[in-house]
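Last lecture ended with a question: if I hand you only a sequence, what can you say about the shape of the protein? Today we answer it with a concrete record. The protein is Major fimbrial subunit protein N-terminal domain-containing protein. Below, first the input exactly as provided, then the predicted structure, then a couple of comments.
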Amino acid sequence: MTSCSSSDTEEGTTAKGSPAVVNLNLGIQGTRASSTSTLPTSSNTLTGEGTVNAFMSGLFDANGSTVTINTASQTSITTTTQARKIYIAANTVNSAADKNLFLGCTSTTDFTGLKADLSYTTSTDGQDNSAKNTVNSQQMTGLPMFGKDDNCFSSFATSNTSDVTVNLGRLVARIDLNSLKSAFASTTAYPTASFTVHEIFMYNVNDVCTYGGTASQNPALSESSGTTGKCEQTDASGAISSLNDYAYLSSGALTNVGAGTGTDADPVVYLTSTTPYYFYVFPHSSTNPTKLVIKGLFKTSSGDAGTELYYPIIINDDAMSTESITTNNDVITANNIYQLDVTLKGRGVTDPSQNITPATATVHFAVTGWTANPQTVVIQ
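The predicted structure:
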């Protein structure tokens, strides 16, 4: 074990407090397991979306100064009775450089200020991001997490051993497109229209987050009006032209014409809960909110050559909702799942930076912690 020095924990070379041992148990808040083909549905401790691979732990005194930093993913930690707080960062990159960042922490502020990179969700254990330029490559078993207990070692006043359980919360939210349909035949504006899905991608995503929960966007991912999305991987014809480092937030090229007559009773069905698309993203504020974008070829009739259009769905948006969102409007919160059921009945827009107006899109959803947050979208 390696300990960081602190004026609160050392006098010269002798640490304050007696030698002590912490026996650590990790729990996952709202654990859900999953497969690679359907949405996660079953509860199972420390598997699927609750898998813990490498983790870093920090033990701090009552003032938040470092007593011990553990980078070996150990559940039996040697420390001193000076410890009063424990912080855990899970599914960190277990490289020498990453360990040195944690070993350099002298306080709780330093520890929670270290950052996770969303592109590392493309590995099964959160250890590398070599698959970031591969479409649809996010994995469920390497999600970054954080947990803490700020007052868990009172027993050190009378004993040199303590058992503590730390509950981990995921730093990410999950966005599910778990139903996609169209019902143009039931409308008066576009009764003979059709739509072919060419791509599904995320727009305006935060891809960096501190373990304290402060998310931000890499400058290279910054979106601007009048351009294609940075996570968009297909060209104007719906084909892959080249793949960039944000391909992991895209479905890649699709040619999904669906099946059905396009009426309300028999809509054209493109995706169901057994064939969904979903993405993990970091929290986001209501400023320039995060969107899930459906891209494809819209035809007004069988004789129309068609136009490549976008249907940008603002996540958790009150204007698109059939229910009033009184708090967290347009906000994405960590450790939550947002499920979307989308029905297309109108014409999309020419740029993903544009918004679907309330008159042409409605959403029904509910938000709970890492359980299904159903959101129904109808675009008229």
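Comments.
1. Confidence is low (pLDDT under 50) at residues 1-14, 32-37.
2. The first strand starts at residue 10 and ends at 11.
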